[in-house]
Amino acid sequence: MSKITTELLLERAVPRSTRLRKIETLNLSKLQLKTGDLDPRLFSRLRHLQKLDLSDNLLDKFPNSLTLPDLRVLNCNNNKLEDVTALKQFPLLEELTYENNVYLTLNDDYKVMFLLQNLRLLNGKDITKLASHVRRVNSRKLTSKVTAHWEKFFRDQLPEKYTAEQVKSIKKKFLKSVQTNVVYGPSSLSEFTRWRVKMIAEELLACSLGLDLSTDPESEEIMDENEEESTESPREAAEDVVGDFSSYVNSVTVTPSKRKRNHSKPGSGNKRSKTQANTEEEAEDVSAEPLHFLQCHSKGNSREDFKTQLWSCVFEPLLDCGARKDPIMSSSRTVATCGGESVCLIDCETGTVLKKYKVATEEFFSVAWTTLTMVISDSRKKSHNILAAAGRRGIVKLIHVAADFCYGEIKAHKKPIATVCFSPTRETHLFTASYDKRIALWDIGIPDCDYNFKASQLLVLEALSIPLRIALVPTCPDQYLLAGCEGGCFAWNIKLDKEQKSRPFEATFQFPDEDGGMTTSHRVDGLAFLNDDVVVSKSSKPGCIYLWSWSRSFDTKGKGCQRTISAVILAELEWSPTDLSYLTLSSCPAKDYVFCGDEKGSVWMYNLSNYTTAWTSAKGKRSDRRIPPTQILKWPELRENGEQLTEVLINNVVSDPTFTYLVVLTSVNITAIWKKS
């Protein structure tokens, strides 16, 4: 087709115009335009253009000198854009959309938020608050890190009188080093961070040494572990998976205001103080403060959805970054959550929903992370985090998060999958526990550079009832798996050197019942290891969580061929007297903490560091009385449209490995994030 002409521009003006300088709105969509068709000389005559629609074309980038000084609204949906930095030439831009450009990622979102100071809406979402954080807080912290890196490692390398060659050498080394070693924020934003670090470093050099800000080609060199996989061909995700790469999804965030601390003990009376966000909260949180309350799993993005149940969350593992590991960021602050038709990735510090994946016909029950060493371009190997998500359809979705791509699925069971977990020793081994009363072990394989992979079933563990929670024994994760089921607590031998592919359970555990006897028949809906030996489980009876020894219980098996074993109880934790099920528990082994929510929206926290040493003793005795919670976090009185949210159940509570953040999943479609003080 012909290039853009003056006649075409006048014809596509809204309304039609007789002069280019009078055009304020211009529709150039669906014209198969390529970058070369945007003639800067012609566009420079559109001095008063405010709205430009370039959607549904073939643009891969923007020319650097379109000269549209008054442009306020730009639509670039459905193109092939690879870079957004040229958009800085439109400083008055307020609204920008570029959805369905498969090469653009969350990093590009952050770049335009930094570059365009007046931007309010990005892809239809209000980004005012987030953009302010990116421009101010993010920039301030990165500047501090870059400056510290220069002062510590490079400032003294320059002599008092230096030559141009010395300056050039120092500049090259500094730019390479600072981009490698200065990291901040979640790994999903590493490209944006490197981009800003390089920009800040060049500004620092210009200010300190009077260097030219232009970058010579050599300084673009970055170590292999940080290179982008630019030679991989991005591809669209499966039709039923939608990646919404934003924190500005249609979510409700309620952030209570700061308040005075109350150092009262759990259970003591406290006055309530109303917050700026229509919340009231009992001031019993001695060690944790609420950061965010997010409504990001709504069906159809409805703000009226307070019925979607949220079930599972797990923190993203840190990739092995070697020297790039930031001591301040000692653990990941990105968490994956699931419930209803969606899986979300959330930055706990900012409350940003980084990504959102939807499957309209699914209800997700469980998510799990693994880190795969994948072969990328030029036969190089690189570690990537892969997220597995499963639920009612019995299908496991495999998502390469950094690429925003659901690359495959495993039809694991014909009935719903209750929970999934990866082996800590074998990165491709995934366990799926299903309502079909089976636990399957899969090898999900490693995808090649075209995302081809082959999954295979290695083992099937037969259960007598539905498995609800599973845990691999830390001291022998390749040999034994423990499961809490509808009908009890069971253990299986999972060693793969055995020929038997389908296996019955090897042992079932007895616990005290309400009548003082022992029973194996009870629902176990909470299960976790506190350390290498101590197991935490509920609910053999209401109001109680048991801590028991795996080794001392299972050792008794060697004395005979008994399939029923009495759990060696170490202690009981005092908990809610409710008989409601499926309010699960979790642990933080590094800090000796156990967490469990209840039927009133409260989170029960137990610091067990004073007990674990005694329990590890071979003769460690059972604690005589129930251990009370160290602290109970009360649910704030959140109000939506003036109405208070009531009957909040806490389905799950998970902390990051260092217990910096606590993520609380509820029955009312609210994800609450607390931060340890």
From TrEMBL:
The keyword Nucleus applies. WD repeats lie at residues 410-444. GO terms for molecular function: chromatin binding. GO terms for biological process: chromatin organization; DNA replication; establishment of protein localization to chromatin. It is found in: Chromosome, Centromere, Kinetochore; Chromosome, Telomere; Cytoplasm, Cytoskeleton, Microtubule organizing center, Centrosome; Nucleus. Residues 7-200 form the Leucine-rich repeat and WD repeat-containing protein 1 LRR domain. This is Leucine-rich repeat and WD repeat-containing protein 1. It comes from Stercorarius parasiticus. The gene is Lrwd1.
